[in-house]
């Protein structure tokens, strides 16, 4: 199905993120794990900023493939299924549907939202392992693995907790320390215990596993990381730290003693000495980016080589610009382990061009916690406020250069000041005044004067900075520029005062309103990546629901943008776009989501 092709030589990455000549953009966000509904930190750490960028790239006229999937393998899925008294397969199917529906409620515009448990990912994962084995990059290692006598089972690395041997963090997981980000083996932990029961009655028992010899690929990986000079500091620093620290890049087990997962097989038969084992979830999960693209191509009835044009360089993927979005704990796997899999398979796989990493989003100074009911999760969030309120706060406060902290006071201030007082107030003042004086038809008015052209020039300057920040995926900076553009619209209305002009010069007042409606349309177009539901409401109000955004055309003749709404056009009255959050409501929400001790 996948074919065999030769490894392309590494080429020096161009020192830019995107340009107007490149037309095909591949975007993937880290796969959300299947065992539960994700919280706001998960959302802003990958999927939401990826959606922002996908929407922006589509608006720029590029062909976009925005791919994601649920990460379904590993012990947590098995245990969640047991807790829910259902089979693992059925549990994953239901949770995939739940996560898909929630992503739609947040207007995440995936081209395809797949599953890592799909038949295509089973086949492709096995194919990768066979190619790695043929190229001498897999070895069978006999090792000792922690076994819980109390639970009578091997403990997967994520279900062992202990003290990190590197930084002495006392709650390091058996696969990785989230404090220092070092990759670990569970047996390395000091004073390990079972996450499930807390039992320390653990024994190291011999077992065999397949290892990917990443150390053999260290030089290629180092050269590749070095070639990506334009990566964010967070991404590069984590990748180099893993390559340089200690003994350097370590060989990594790619199998586990579990029943749920992709069986370790050759030609449909168990791999010798790997009977009853499955591939490690962190081996097969990133491969699901590719298999989900295959499933997307099949789902949309594309030709058989369509997916290859996104992923295989000798099928056209060299012309693709590939961008990944993820939280910082995923960066080591995406800068080293997954690229090692792609390079080691001796095929012309497309390597990522840009990795946008994020720090943590904390909740009121601490961590989100499902068990303590602390923090806001996606299903709760969407029941409380419209999706755009959450999208705007999360993106305008995205943890790009440092951790960010969610508080209800910050959320209240952001929604009230930015959305209600700036954008919402502009739309409300304009539409309500026009409706009261001229009805639902845009009135005839005078021609634009110096005041309007001054406003256009002012907006154009900020828009240029906004466009540049979006191209560079500088999200908080982009949000700041967008907020400024909305403010310029309010300032124009305040200076022009159509409610005063109408007393003596109806044509001048009508001109201000007509220009204001054109500002409304422009705001809806450039705000769509951040607040798509609100953008749609504004366009519907103006009878422009079917208008496609042509972002690049804005630069051709900027002033012409503000002549698309003419006198005689109709608009539909629109309610207030945003409702302010009161102090009392914010206080109540603080108490409700503060959490309880276990």
Notes on the structure:
It is elongated, with a radius of gyration of 27 Å. Strands 3-2-1-15-16 form a five-stranded parallel β-sheet, sandwiched between helices. A four-stranded antiparallel β-sheet has the order 5-4-9-10. A three-stranded antiparallel β-sheet has the order 7-6-8, with no helix packed on it. With 598 residues, the chain is an alpha/beta fold. The two termini are 50 Å apart. The protein contains 18 helices and 18 strands. Strand 4 (138-148) and strand 5 form a beta hairpin. Helices cover 43% and strands 14% of the residues.
> What Rg, in angstroms, do the CA atoms define?
27 Å
Helix content range: 40-55%
Strand order of the largest sheet: 3-2-1-15-16
Count of DSSP-assigned helices: 18
Regions with little confidence, pLDDT below 50 for 5+ residues: 1-16
Please state roughly what percent of the residues sit in beta strands, choosing from under 5%, 5-15%, 15-25%, 25-35%, 35-45% or over 45%.
Answer: 5-15%
Main beta sheet: strand number and arrangement?
Answer: 5 strands, parallel
Instruction: Work out the number of β strands.
Output: 18
Features:
single chain; 18 helices; 5-stranded parallel β-sheet; 598 residues; disordered N terminus; elongated; alpha/beta; 4-stranded antiparallel β-sheet
SSE layout and pairing:
Layout: E1 24-29, H1 40-59, E2 63-70, H2 75-83, H3 88-105, E3 112-115, H4 119-134, E4 138-148, E5 153-154, E6 160-163, E7 172-173, E8 190-194, E9 202-212, H5 218-227, H6 233-244, E10 252-253, E11 255-256, E12 265-266, E13 269-270, E14 278-279, H7 281-299, H8 308-311, E15 320-327, H9 331-344, E16 354-358, E17 361-363, H10 378-384, H11 387-396, E18 404-406, H12 408-438, H13 450-471, H14 475-496, H15 498-501, H16 506-527, H17 532-541, H18 583-592
Parallel strand pairs: 1-2, 1-15, 2-3, 15-16, 17-18
Antiparallel strand pairs: 4-5, 4-9, 6-7, 6-8, 9-10, 11-14, 12-13
């Amino acid at each position: 199905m996948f074919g065999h092709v030769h490894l392309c030589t590494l080429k020096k990455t161009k020192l830019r993120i995107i340009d107007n000549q490149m037309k095909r953009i591949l975007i993937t966000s880290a796969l959300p794990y299947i065992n539960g509904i994700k919280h706001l930190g998960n959302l802003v750490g990958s999927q939401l900023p990826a959606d922002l960028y996908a929407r922006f790239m589509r608006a720029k006229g590029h062909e976009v493939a925005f791919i994601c999937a649920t990460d379904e393998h590993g012990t947590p899925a098995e245990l969640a299924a047991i807790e829910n008294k259902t089979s693992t397969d059925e549990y994953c199917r239901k949770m995939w549907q739940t996560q898909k529906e929630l992503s739609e409620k947040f207007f995440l515009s995936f081209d395809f939202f797949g599953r890592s448990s799909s038949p295509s990912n089973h086949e492709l994962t096995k194919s990768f392992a066979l190619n790695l084995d043929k190229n001498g990059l897999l070895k069978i290692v006999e090792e000792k693995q922690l076994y819980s006598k109390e639970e009578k089972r091997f403990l997967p690395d994520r279900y062992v907790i202990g003290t990190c041997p590197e930084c002495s963090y006392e709650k390091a997981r058996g696969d990785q320390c989230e404090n220092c980000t070092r990759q670990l083996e569970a047996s390395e932990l000091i004073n390990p215990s079972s996450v499930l029961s807390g039992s320390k009655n653990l024994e190291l028992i011999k077992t065999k596993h397949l290892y990917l010899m990443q150390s053999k690929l260290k030089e290629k990986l180092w050269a590749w990381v070095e070639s990506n000079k334009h990566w964010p500091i967070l991404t590069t620093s984590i990748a180099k730290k893993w390559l340089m620290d200690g003994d350097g890049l370590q060989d990594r087990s790619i199998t586990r003693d579990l029943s749920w997962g992709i069986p370790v097989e050759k030609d449909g038969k168990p791999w010798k000495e790997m009977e009853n084992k499955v591939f490690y979830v962190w081996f097969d999960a990133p491969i699901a980016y590719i298999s989900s693209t295959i499933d997307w191509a099949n789902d949309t009835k594309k030709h058989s080589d369509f997916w290859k044009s996104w992923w295989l360089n000798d099928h056209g993927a060299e012309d693709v610009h590939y961008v990944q979005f993820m939280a910082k704990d995923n960066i080591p796997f995406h800068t080293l382990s997954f690229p090692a899999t792609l390079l080691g398979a001796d095929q012309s796989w497309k390597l990522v061009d840009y990795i946008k990493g994020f720090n943590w989003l904390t909740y009121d100074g601490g961590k989100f916690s499902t068990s303590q009911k602390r923090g806001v999760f996606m299903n709760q969030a969407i029941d409380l406020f419209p999706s755009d309120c959450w999208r705007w706060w999360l993106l305008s406060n995205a943890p790009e250069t440092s951790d960010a902290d969610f508080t209800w006071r910050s959320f209240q201030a952001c929604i009230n000041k930015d959305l209600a007082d700036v954008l919402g107030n502009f739309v409300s003042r304009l539409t309500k005044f026009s409706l009261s004086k001229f009805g639902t038809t845009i009135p005839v008015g005078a021609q634009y004067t110096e005041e309007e052209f001054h406003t256009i020039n002012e907006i154009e300057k900020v828009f240029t900075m906004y466009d540049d920040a979006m191209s560079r995926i500088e999200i908080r900076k982009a949000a700041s520029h967008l907020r400024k553009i909305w403010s310029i619209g309010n300032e124009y209305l305040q200076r022009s005062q159509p409610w005063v002009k109408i007393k003596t010069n109806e044509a001048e007042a009508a001109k201000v309103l007509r220009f204001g409606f054109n500002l409304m349309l422009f705001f809806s177009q450039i705000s769509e990546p951040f607040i798509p539901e609100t953008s749609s409401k504004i366009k519907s109000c103006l009878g422009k629901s079917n208008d496609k955004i042509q972002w690049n055309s804005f630069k051709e003749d900027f002033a012409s943008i503000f002549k698309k709404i003419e006198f005689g056009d109709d608009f539909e009255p629109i309610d207030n776009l945003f409702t302010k959050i009161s102090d009392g409501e914010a206080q109540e929400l603080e108490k409700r989501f503060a959490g309880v001790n276990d």
